Amino acid sequence: MKRSNSEKLYEKALEYFPGGVNSPVRAFKAVEGAPLFIKKGKGPYIWDEDENQFIDFCCSFGPHILGHNYPDVHQNIVDTLENGTSFGAPTKLESDLAEIIISRNPYVDKIRFVSSGTEAVMSGIRLARGYTGKNKIIKFEGCYHGHFDSLLVNAGSGLATFGESSSAGVPQKVVEDTIVIPLNDEEALEAAFEKHADDLACVIIEPIPANNGLLLQEKSFLLKLREMCTEHGVLLFFDEVISGFRVAFSGAAEYYDIAPDIVSYGKIIGGGLPVGAYGAKKHIMQSVSPDGPVYQAGTLSGNPVAMAAGIAQLTVCSQPGFYEDQEARTKTFVESVNAHAKEKGYDFSLVTVGSIFWMAFSDQTTIRSAAQINADMTPFKKLHKALLERSVYVGPSGYEVGFVSHVHTKEVLENAAQQFKNALDAVFS
Ligand code: PMP
């Protein structure tokens, strides 16, 4: 596979950006070679600067549920652009997108658009604290909620440990109010509530944890979480930046039929442009400025071009049968690859939910907590290379999940499954 143009561009980018990139995982630090510089995308495919074509399962880490450059999304962006890009004043498009979301979503009466997932979660946490008048938050080991200070905490395992930041530049004081516990562990949850419930503003969770492998939770654990939050007057915050509009229109909340108190969205909601949102029932959202005392603002919030992209994308997603079809195609693909891995006795399986999959180097198809992940990423590194050589692009980290889009047709996925099988044979032979 020719990579010389990407290599040259990477050398140049290294002069300008830390690690040559504007977001760390893009740097190919965990896999071989220079990052591929992508020139264009269409449907399920991307092309790099060396003219290599790939079936794309990264899908910009989630936003492209309709694939790249979907005609309706493209057209709505272009049409809106004709009228300008940003006004610092309300537009009709913001309400149009909000209506598409809220009219189908029983958990949210009001939302606020922001420009990224990080911003959505950060603002939602401030709202939880402002609304409850409490300070502490519980998060789960292995869940990622964006790069703002108080949630950049992984911390060790054990019951109700106080957080320790996983980034330099975050004062210890800032993370002292973040309590980190393992996923899917009812005992740890009970212990943390017992100790901290009096000053607990919210519990934040990716209801489908998909940033550290795909750590599917038992529904009984999520129900327990809901129950304990209700009992203690603590808000349950579902971070649906990945799962929102991905596993069902109203996200994991709809998928599991569990109502959160606050929810954050990102990625799919913006059709590939920078958008995030947080929302809740009216009595909670009333705390947000200018109605209430919780301040939050943004020059480009609700940007018209981004709203247009979101409107076009979510209109397609809201069609009957959309998510059933997504899940069915993904399941066929995953089962085909898994049958091959099983037959050959490889320590490998694709773990899946909805149209998300994760390459687990284990023969288990359910892994529920960070501690259960096989920490040896050497086989992933080999698989990543073998897939690129077979024209399949997945995110350059063994902890990232893959995404199947609406235009990853049965035929595209059959081809992809065959390439996965060949790549696995190359890795394990
Ligand atoms: N929350 C979750 C669950 C995410 O997956 C991400 C991004 N991967 C974020 C928050 C942060 O979103 P962004 O990168 O748009 O700031």
Can you give a write-up of this model?
The two termini are 21 Å apart. Helix content is 37%, strand content 15%. The protein folds into two domains: 4-69 and 321-428, Aspartate Aminotransferase, domain 1 (Alpha-Beta Complex); 71-317, 3-Layer(aba) Sandwich (Aspartate Aminotransferase, domain 2), CATH 3.40.640.10. It is of the alpha/beta class and 429 residues long. Bound molecules: 4'-deoxy-4'-aminopyridoxal-5'-phosphate. 4'-deoxy-4'-aminopyridoxal-5'-phosphate binds next to helix 4.
CATH class placement of the largest domain: Alpha Beta
**Which class best fits the helix and strand makeup?**
alpha/beta
Q: What is the domain total for the residues? A: 2
- The number of strands is 15
| Number of DSSP helical runs | 13
Characteristic key phrases:
about 425 residues, alpha/beta, Aspartate Aminotransferase, domain 1, Aspartate Aminotransferase, domain 2, four-stranded mixed beta sheet, about 15% strand, globular, binds 4'-deoxy-4'-aminopyridoxal-5'-phosphate
Fold topology:
Layout: H1 4-16, E1 38-42, E2 45-48, E3 53-56, H2 71-81, H3 92-102, E4 110-114, H4 117-132, E5 136-140, E6 161-162, H5 172-175, E7 178-181, H6 186-196, E8 200-205, H7 219-232, E9 235-239, H8 251-256, E10 262-265, E11 276-280, H9 282-285, H10 304-317, H11 322-344, E12 349-353, E13 356-360, H12 378-389, E14 392-393, E15 402-403, H13 410-428
Parallel strand pairs: 3-14, 5-7, 5-8, 8-9, 9-10
Antiparallel strand pairs: 1-2, 2-3, 4-11, 6-7, 10-11, 12-13, 13-15
Helix pairs in contact: 2-10, 3-10, 6-7, 11-13, 12-13
